[in-house]
Amino acid sequence: MPTDAMSADEFRRYGKQLIDWIADYWQGLEDVTIQPDIEPGEIRAMLPAAAPEAPEPFDAVIADLDAVVARGLVHWQSPHWFAYFPANASFPAILAELVSAGLGQQGMLWSTSPVTTEIESHVLDWLVDLLGLPAHWKTTGPGGGVIQMSASDASHIALVVARHRAAAGNARPHDMVAYTSSQAHSSIEKGARVAGYGHIRPINVDAQFGMLPDALAAAIDGDLSAGLTPAFVGSTIGTTGTTAIDPIRAIGEVAQSNGLWHHVDAAFAGTAMLCDEFRHHQDGLELVDSYNFNPHKWMLTNFDCSVLYVADRRPLIEVLEILPPYLKNRASQVADVIDYRDWHIPLGRRFRALKLWWVLRTYGASGLRALIREHVRLARWLDRQLMDDDRFEVVAPTPFSLVSFRHVSGDSTTQSLASEINREGPAYVTASSIDGMHFIRVSIGQTNTREAHVQRLWQTLDRLAPPV
Ligand code: PLP
Prior knowledge:
With 468 residues, this protein is of the alpha/beta class. Helix content is 42%, strand content 13%. The protein has a domain at 105-350: Type I PLP-dependent aspartate aminotransferase-like (Major domain) (Aspartate Aminotransferase, domain 2). α6 crosses α7 and α8 (213-225) runs parallel beside α9. The structure holds pyridoxal-5'-phosphate. The site of pyridoxal-5'-phosphate has 14 residues, from α6.
């Protein structure tokens, strides 16, 4: 006989209890050790070998948040988080996520959830203005935005559309070439592999790790002479290694004159464009075919929320539209509605725009700008301390809020320093390398990271770094 696992009254009670648990979790983050001291398999060993046959009381389920879940958490939301890039979140976004689950919408077509579709289109149109993106990228123009799961999905789709366009000229995927800088995120190469490109060309960078447009042009010429088909170039505003910035306009001109699809990956740094003073880094976007940034990195909107814009939505829809009889509906046939299933690979889609909408409304553009400016100010302050200290060298500029530096004594001192910082805590940083040169990345962007946290990190660095 089926059981009703939870009544509406129990749902109210447990829901309130869990909101309290989450609030306590966030309030306790100031003092936690970010990376748990845990062995592989430890969590699984706490779980029963088989799924429960009999229903369990929900109190027991909640108890395991502390007994099991807490044991294996990496505390990405700690204000001492300086590793990778942030994956920041906020209370309004968390509540929106809960409501989105509560509403259980399936927004694959306009007709299956008009509100999911229209809030998404509208909020992404807002962002075009807020980020200083080309006005024709709005859904009210020829382009449009769509929320994807990740930047990797966004670039994969751009690669597929580019492949389709090149195939219209009778080229075979096997002969197609995708270009991106040697500093681009690995997802571009992965996307090109998945999309079946025969060739992926890493393009050289300058001393500040930005792609060299002349090297791109030369590579394209070489491939054309070899009978290949250049089809796609991916440039980056804010590379993962050092937040290097590719010259978008110059790359755009090379792409246009050779008929390549130009995709821009601004996964992390895109959020900075809320502030006017960073927009010169995106000069030339009007030449671009597609663009992506991740509110789930720096815009307080918990994972997953990655925005893809296309300058012209027709080639995207042409590639991804497929209409089985059971999805035919009057709105799609007679009205000019957006059916977002034609804008990404999955059919089904959640109401992810709700959290972006709530973040924008509760912080306001001014609140978000203030946070971005504060993070950048703190990064530049740290950059200055490092530059003024002869034990350290900064290995790349700090255009946003990532500081990349090393100990002048070399790779092994630098690596040991990163390990010691992480061992001591509460700060948590990433050790990285480019072409064999090791360095430390301090990425400032967690929701609650403020001056005191960065100062404390600097004090730790100052104490742990050996003299030259
Ligand atoms: N592009 C850049 C520049 C990144 O830094 C990252 C991740 O850090 C990605 C793409 C991949 O992001 P996602 O996890 O959303 O696929």
